[in-house]
Amino acid sequence: MSVKTAALRLDRLLANLGYGSRREVQQLIWAGLVTLDGEIVDDSDAKIAVTADLADRMTVDDEALDPPPGLCLMLNKPLGVTCSHKEQGPLVYGLLPERWRRREPAISTVGRLDKDTSGLLLMTDDGALLHKIISPRSNVTKRYDVTLDRPLRGDEGKLFAAGTLMLDGETKPLEPALLEVATPTRAYVTVTEGRYHMVRRMFAAVGNHVVALHRDRIGALTLPDDLEPGRYRLMSAADIAQVFQAPDPTPVA
Ligand code: URA
C-alpha cells in the first residue's frame, strides 16, 4: 500500500518534504541545487512524478532526496522516549532527521509503546497503511518480552488464552493471548489488541508486576539484532508484507 502520488510541482514536493517554505525551496531550485536523473532542474513549476524510486534519482544540494511520501520505517524505541507529538521530554520524533518533522503528510507512530517500553515501533506517513495495520480485521500480532517481579503462578497461560480476562475498569474481555514461558520470571506474550498499558495490566490482573517490557515482533517482522536502540531503518515492501504475516512458531525457552 502506498500514498497516492501522481505528480507534484517541484517546489511543492520539496516544501512537503520539509526542505523549507515554498519561497525557500524556490531559492534552492533556482540556484541549480536540485537534480533529477543527473540533470539540474531549475524550474520550480516542473511537474515531478512522485515515484518510490525518486530518492535514487533526485538530489538536493548533492544529497539524495529524502524518502518520498509512502515512507514506512521501523524504529528500535529506547526506554524513556514518548510516542507523542506534543508531550514534554524526549519524543520518538526527535530520533528522526530534523527535517522529517516538517513533512506533509506527517509521520505518525503505528500505535504506541509506553515511555517505559522499548523495542519495535513502526512509523509511517501513509494513513491507509497505518489503519490497515492497527485494524482488528488485520489481526496483526505483537509479541512482547516480559520480565516479571515475581515468579509466574502457572495458570497465567490458560487465563490469557481463554479470551475471558477482564482488565480493571473495562467492560469487554481481552481477546485470547499467547503466553510462552522462558523462565519463572520471564515470558513472551503475543497479543492482537492494543489497549492502554495492556500487557502491564494483564500481569497486574494475575497479581504480578512487569519490571521490563520490550516488543520484539509485529506479525512476522522481528526487530533486527543489528538495529541499535534509538536507530531506525526504512522498510521495504517485503518488510511491510511481513507485518501482515503470521510469525513462525518458535520455541522461546
Ligand atoms: N502493553 C503495555 O503495557 N505497554 C506497552 O507499551 C505495550 C503493550
How are the SSEs ordered, and which strands pair?
Blueprint (H helix, E strand, L loop, with lengths): L6 E3 H7 L5 H9 L3 E3 L2 E2 L6 E3 L4 H4 E3 L2 E2 L7 E6 L30 E2 L7 E8 L2 H8 L7 E7 L7 H7 L15 E6 L2 E6 L6 H8 L4 E9 L2 E2 L9 E3 L2 H7 L10
Parallel strand pairs: 9-13
Antiparallel strand pairs: 1-4, 2-3, 2-5, 5-6, 7-9, 7-15, 8-9, 10-12, 10-13, 11-12, 13-14
Helix pairs in contact: 1-2
This protein binds uracil.
Uracil (URA) binds next to helix 6.
Question: Could you please describe the fold and organization of this structure?
Answer:
This protein has 253 residues and is of the alpha+beta class. It folds into 3 domains: 7-64, RNA-binding S4 domain (Structural Genomics Hypothetical 15.5 Kd Protein In mrcA-pckA Intergenic Region, Chain A); 72-135 and 226-243, Alpha-Beta Plaits (2-Layer Sandwich), CATH 3.30.70.580; 141-218, Alpha-L RNA-binding motif (Alpha-Beta Plaits, 2-Layer Sandwich). Helices cover 20% and strands 26% of the residues. The protein has 7 helices and 15 strands. It has helices at residues 10-16, 22-30, 54-57, 127-134, 156-162, 198-205, 237-243; strands at residues 7-9, 34-36, 39-40, 47-49, 58-60, 63-64, 72-77, 108-109, 117-124, 142-148, 178-183, 186-191, 210-218, 221-222, 232-234. The strands form 3 sheets. Strands 7, 8, 9, 10, 11, 12, 13, 14 and 15 form a 9-stranded mixed beta sheet that branches. A hairpin with a 2-residue loop joins strand 11 and strand 12. Helix 1 packs across helix 2. The longest helix is centred in the N-terminal third of the chain and has 9 residues, at 22-30. It is elongated and about 70 Å long. Bound molecules: uracil (URA).
